[in-house]
Amino acid sequence: MDWHLSIRDGCSPCACAKSSSDKDVILNILSVLTDLLSLGTGRRIQYVISKGGSEALLQALTTTAQTEPLDHSILLPLLRLLARVGQRDRKFGLKVQKAEATDTILSLARRSLGHHLHLTHCLWVLQVCASNVTTGTTLGINGAMELLFKVITPYSKRHIRTVRAAIEALAALLKSRSNSRRAVSRGYLGGLLRLYQDWHRNDVSNNYVYIRRGLLLCLKHITNIQLGRETFLFSKGMEILFTSVQDCLSCKNLDPIINTVIQILRKCYPKEPLPVATVRSSYSFPLPGNAKAEPPCEGSEGDYESDGEEEAEKDLDSEEEESKEEDYDLETDVNKLRSKAVLDRPEEELGQYKAMCPELSHNFQSLLSAPSHSIPNATSVKHPNYRLRNQSVTEMGPDPGEKDFKVPRQSWTNKEIHRWDQTDEKRDIAETAQDAHSCEDPARNHVLMLRPLPKDPAWYKKTFYPECEALINSSAGGSLDCSDIVTNLLEKHQGDIPFHSPHFYITRAKRVKSIPDYKDLAFPDFWGHQPPPYSKPMLERKYGVQRKSGIPHLIIFRDQRQPAIVILASIYCSHSSPGAPGCLTFFSKFESGNLRKAIQVREFEYDLIMNADVNSNQQHQWFYFEVRGMKLAVPYRFNIINCEKFNSQFNYGMQLVMYSVKEALQGRPRWLRAGHDICYYKNHYRCSATAGRGVKGNFYYTLTFSIKFPHKDDVCYLAYHYPYTYSTMMSHLDILERSRNPKKVYWRQQTLCQTLGGNLCPLLTITAMPESKKRDDLEQFCNRPYVFLVARVHPGESNASWVMKGTLEFLVSNDPIADLLRKCFIFKIVPMLNPDGVINGNHRCSLSGDDLNRQWLTPNSQLHPTIYHAKGLLYYLRSIGRAPLVFCDYHGHSQRKNVFLYGCSIKETLWQAGCMVDTAVITEDVGYRTLPKILDKVAPAFVMNSCSFLVEKSRESTARVVVWKEMGVLRSYTMESTYCGCSHGLYKVSQSFKEPCAGLQLGTQELEEMGSKFCLGLLILHLKSLPCSKKVMSQAALLLDLEEEITDRTQRSVIVVF
Ligand SMILES: [Zn+2]
């Protein structure tokens, strides 16, 4: 075909079309063009556009339209081509303006009014012209809407193609706000509503869904303006649309109609502020220095919505959609992508981190005893007399310099380390408990108690603890100190949950510094969680769920709402008020708890409001609260009405988690996926302009779910995801340290720094003890490459902690693979980068109200101490030539399924961005792909296809990007674990189980497994990428057949219950 040739010769058919006057030639060219463009992908059209095709066709149109009489044999193919090319040409509207073709098109349409085929062609072009708002406005001013309205009214099924084209063109025109205003003032809104009713009534067999949808789109655009919404309400639009969808709800084919109706209804429903006095967090924390203080925001201003509320409605059904804008966010500046060894602080500051690498000192006498070092905090960094503390590795006595540092817990740290040498556990616990009291500020020395359990003897009858019942019966009037119950229960708790001890938990929890000053322990954290022996598949999304839950709140129950009963005024109440009889009672004032307010809206239905992150007025997503006083077999409905993310896996099969105390006492202590008829949707609450500043869209979303509790009058806990508190982690570390084999496992727990809230951020070093004290072995020990792991910078991502738990347990285990792995690497691990956030029930931020994973470029030593010092330690490792081989930051992902890695690649970023940079000049090691490829093979939940190695501008201050760029770590990753489940791999239930196939929801077991498989992946990476000693290789060969590792996964079986 000589098409390309002719273009290159500068003689394209388009170019010919405008100059040639020979009708046959033109017709031939048009027919060739039509044939060419109707085949294949959009590439040909794009090519035509890039060569000025749109302009040429418009020019031809203007010329043809001037000839009298009109030659429709040319006009029609020309219009068809214009419509086709115009659809793909993003600048088509502008080109139409430039060519001054709007009038031409309009007058052509007017002249064709009597001829439907001709008119339809004109309308197609009109529609693509209107895709540009300015052009659309011009067309509106010149009377395009009047013309279209005449075509579509009154209702008639004749010339259906023309009517459809007219409605679609009108919808396009109404995207212009001035056109919408014009349409309202001409009374078109009422006309459109009536027309929609007519079509709805007459289209009994649903043959004209596209027409009805087109009319709804017109209404949707008009109601984008305030005047449109007011007129819509005045014209009874709510009632008309609501009634019309009632008979559509069960029909799957009518989804486009129902979704559009719901969007319009939600938008037009009068907006309300959230039923709270202020949207700011109930907690605030005074920041050191003059750090930014958020202005107070009251949620009571009048206008909850600006006139210009453009509905950025994302289609809820397009799951895992990657924003198209992402490409624009890619970093394309090669200089910014290149690794740069910069330093964000004075070099001499790095010396302090030497103490955090005791493994590098050759003094093994000291390695075998416990080291201590100073805990950097905001004060120590600024301290003018700051000095290196590396000597403390060998010193055991108190350091005189200690007094200069405001670290009151220093002495405690020493005791802490020593106490595990004692063998008598009971004495040990008692002592540490005393320790905890003696070293704490006496003013804060409160008694931390387990949440009291019901004292009703009947409560214990069916449990396995008749002693409790006897105890209660014997006490006068049932007034029994609940600590007796707890003591009794604990005697029965025989440590049946691995790596958990209620004693250790309570000891650790007593030391926690929280802003609300917690006095209660939540039962699940205290008692422990044991994963169930089965996994649960994702919920199937039922048709109509979203509607049923979305609309009743807007319409059906609008006037039937009972007067709201506030049963928990705010979390300031130390004890929940009992509320009306039959009411549930709520409580959340415990570690990681988050619930601000509960409002009973119907007998078995509650609206719940989460608390914003401390020092913030946003970030509501994480919830964790206690509920009691339930009836048996009644489905309770909960609506969490101030969620913030625009979409959620709750719409794609995810359930929340529930823990029943009665179940736990009967031997089933576990968080389970629970809840049904779950839906997540945009609601009618709006954030006031001031409160929502800086927030993308001032919208709130509702998570609604029904739940049947397993027992009557139980104490149950509900949470967004499996909770994992700071105390859980600290007590877990205590147990890990005790459980390891000290002859084999080198383990050091130090403190990276103190947090703003005064809690300690632990730093772990794990590797294998040197084989012997021979020089070679010691050298091998010191020269092992580093792996640097961090987790839980985002407190709401508790899944990250469960993965980290799996990693840690594997690393200290007796598994021979772990043994070998320890001999290959030195692990530096910060298992919780944001302890304060976790403790205080935040979702995203630290006490400073900052997202700590956006602070890595220039962390502030006072405001972001954990990031500042983690980065400092990395700088130190780099400065001694020991930058880690692998860095990984564990996260949770709320929008996507599976587990996957984000990494960094210059080439892939530039390539994806379509950059014309000669990538040949950039040599890039593709080694960053090896680990995810290995994980794809060895970890059942991991999916390589979900990984991405693109560097986005908006992520430039995340751990992954900064460590990659500033520390030169090629394998710098973020590991994202879904909150939901898997759509690929082993945990996707095979087709034979169920149609359509649903994946499994991840439980803690699968998350922990991911953590241990990550370790296995590291070992294989080492074997593949690094020079290994013969010894290591032969050991590895004994342990794992690499090929087998790869095929093995398909043979394992998963137990599934439905
Ligand atoms: Zn995260």
Automatic annotation (TrEMBL):
Report the GO terms under cellular component. Answer: cytosol
Q: Which reaction does it catalyse?
A: (L-glutamyl)(n+1)-gamma-L-glutamyl-L-glutamyl-[protein] + H2O = (L-glutamyl)(n)-gamma-L-glutamyl-L-glutamyl-[protein] + L-glutamate; C-terminal L-alpha-aminoacyl-L-glutamyl-L-glutamyl-[tubulin] + H2O = C-terminal L-alpha-aminoacyl-L-glutamyl-[tubulin] + L-glutamate
Q: Which GO terms describe its biological process?
A: proteolysis
Q: What is any Pfam family matched here?
A: Peptidase_M14
Active site location: E976
Q: Which EC class heads this enzyme's classification?
A: hydrolase
**Residue ranges of the region described as Disordered:** 285-340
SUPFAM superfamilies named among the record's database cross-references: ARM repeat, Zn-dependent exopeptidases
Q: Where is the Peptidase M14 domain?
A: 722-1022
Cofactor(s) recorded in Swiss-Prot or TrEMBL: Zn(2+)
| Record-linked InterPro entries | ARM-like (IPR011989), ARM-type_fold (IPR016024), CBPC1/4 (IPR033852), Cytosolic_carboxypeptidase (IPR050821), Pepdidase_M14_N (IPR040626), Peptidase_M14 (IPR000834)
Q: Which UniProt keywords apply?
A: Carboxypeptidase, Cytoplasm, Hydrolase, Metal-binding, Metalloprotease, Protease, Zinc
What Gene Ontology molecular function terms does this protein carry? metallocarboxypeptidase activity; zinc ion binding
Q: Indicate where this protein resides in the cell.
A: Cytoplasm, Cytosol
Which family does the entry's similarity section mention?
Belongs to the peptidase M14 family.
UniProt-recorded name of the protein: tubulin-glutamate carboxypeptidase
The gene is LOC101876289
